């Protein structure tokens, strides 16, 4: 079987049933969660589950600029990411950006 292009794999992620809902309630919700996400503070360390329950309901995937990484909160999305290394890999950052055709 021929290797799929990165664009094809990315489209499959977008079309993925769990991945199709990754936008949650929009960027405002993501910004609010990102601002409250600090995995090094005592409240989070004592009980992270309320935060993740809220994140899964509001915005299951968000970027947190203060830590410079993406947070993915749903099991099926995380599993899909782990099973799709051609799309979700730090190696992708080494490839130059190209205009979509």
Explain what the structure shows.
With 101 residues, this protein is mainly alpha-helical. The chain has one domain (6-92). It has helices at 6-15, 27-36, 42-46, 49-58, 75-82; strands spanning 61-64, 69-72. It has a two-stranded antiparallel sheet with strand order 1-2. The protein is elongated, with a radius of gyration of 15 Å. The relative contact order is 0.17. The model is unreliable at 13-27 (pLDDT under 50).
Q: Top keywords for this entry?
A:
single chain; 101 residues; mainly alpha; 2 strands; elongated
Rg, rounded, reads: 15 Å
| DSSP E strands, number | 2
Q: Characterize the main sheet.
A: 2 strands, antiparallel
- As an assembly, this protein is single chain
H-E string: HHHHEEH
Q: Helix segment count?
A: 5
Helix content: 40-55%
Q: Runs with pLDDT <50, length 5+?
A: 13-27
User: Separation of termini?
Assistant: 24 Å
Shape: elongated
Q: Mean pLDDT score, rounded?
A: 73
**Strands in their spatial order, largest beta sheet:** 1-2
Class inferred from helices and paired strands: mainly alpha
Domain module count: 1
């Amino acid at each position: 079987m021929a290797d799929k292009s990165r664009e094809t794999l990315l489209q499959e992620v977008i079309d993925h049933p769990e991945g199709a809902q990754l936008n949650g309630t929009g960027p405002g919700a993501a910004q609010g969660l990102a601002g409250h996400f600090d995995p090094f503070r005592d409240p989070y360390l004592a009980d992270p589950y309320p935060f993740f329950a809220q994140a899964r309901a509001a915005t299951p995937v968000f970027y947190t600029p203060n830590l410079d990484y993406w947070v993915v909160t749903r099991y099926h999305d995380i599993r899909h990411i782990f099973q799709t290394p051609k799309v979700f890999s730090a190696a992708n950052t080494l490839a130059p950006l190209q205009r979509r055709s």
